[in-house]
Amino acid sequence: MSESAPPSGARPARRDLLVALLAGAVGAGAGIGASAVFSSGSGREAATDEDGVDSVQASGRTQAGIDRPGTPQRFGRLMVFDIDRTASAPDWLRTLGARILEATTGEEPDAVIDLTVTVGVGPALVAILDPTLPGAEDLPEFRGDADIPSERRGGDLLLTAYGSDPGALRPVLLDLAADIPGAVVRWEQALFRGPGSGTRVRNPLGFHDGIVVPHGEEQLDENVWLADGPLAGGTVCVVRRLRLDIDGFRSLPIAEQERIIGRRRIDGAPLSGGEPDDDVDLNSRTPEGDPVIDAHAHVRAAHPSFTGSKLMLRRGYAFDDGAADTGLMFICFQRDLRTFVATQYRLDEVDALSAFSTPTASGTFLILPGFDQERPLGSTLSATT
To answer: How many angstroms separate the CA atoms of 377 and 373, rounded?
Structure first.
């Protein structure tokens, strides 16, 4: 079952309000939820359009739409497909990659200059290629997942497109999918986010999100990119569509909201003190001896020190399908699926923020290594098949 495009009429007013909330509400992480330059095989030169939007390098060691651009585009479209699993994956992936390079050259007059397209392969298809590959493991069931419709769980292929023109993204993805054998949309979602710098942005609850993430080439290599073998430069993605009880959360006193999150709403700084980018001090105590960061605060529940896991690169977007179906599309990238799984299990156990979040779609996908004209998308899989 697919999501329809954002309706017209009275919806824009609601959407504008949520965009405004994301942009500057004066009053978060995994359970709600360095850019690199490579030589191009597409012949695309760096460019800037009349609105000051920069082009994004499509080819390279890693795919675009993950760590580049460093600040995610304002709009996105996520589509999950079922496909013909008997078709030769290296063949259709090669064709898909070539068409992505064409679509992202920006040579047509009305092209989206900052367009990126990212390709991921679902666990069932990865297991057919090689069950020992990273990405062949599916997600376990977390709290609330039993109520997710079957058509919004899993999937064979993930395509995401991001850019400054929201109306162009769905047609681009449908056009790219047209040559994939048996491709049928399983579900899809239009996405948007407020302005921000880097991955940090206000989530629909009005708090800064995307603060604790790996930065720079060294941290990305340690936490995000697969290091060796035919999938070097790939990563494991988790997608979770989370409907949020925004009205219920925002009806709470600001102090209670901040206690649940563990950060100040106004600037994202930890309640334990310091600047927004400073580490949370989980040992900080009040003069009375009580923990400054509540035992069930989101920042404590999601902290890697309790799970022994690495960092995730998070690039969350909001969605608004009207009525009470509004929330966050949590999207994260990591070298090992365990990083997300261990974190989510802990959130299910202790996170106070979970009371305001309902999962409505879920899946994990192996994001293939980057590609160019000389090294087609999926070409390294031939070493395993």
So the answer is: 9
**Cα(150)–Cα(241) distance, rounded to whole angstroms?**
14
Indicate whether 188 pLDDT > 50: yes
Q: Before 69, cis peptide (omega within 30)?
A: yes
Q: Cβ distance 286 to 294 under 8 Å?
A: no
Give mean pLDDT, residues 311-318. Answer: 94
Q: Please enumerate in sequence order all residues whose Cβ is within 8 A of that of 211, keeping only pairs 6 or more positions apart, or say none.
A: 28, 29, 199, 200, 263, 268, 276, 277
Cβ–Cβ < 8 Å for 32, 330: yes
Question: Band of the pLDDT at 384, cuts 50, 70, 90?
Answer: low
CB 272 within 8 A of CB 284: yes
CA distance 275 to 338: 30
127-155 burial, b at 16+ Cβ within 10 Å, e below that, comes to: bebbeebbbbbbbeebebbeebeeebbbb
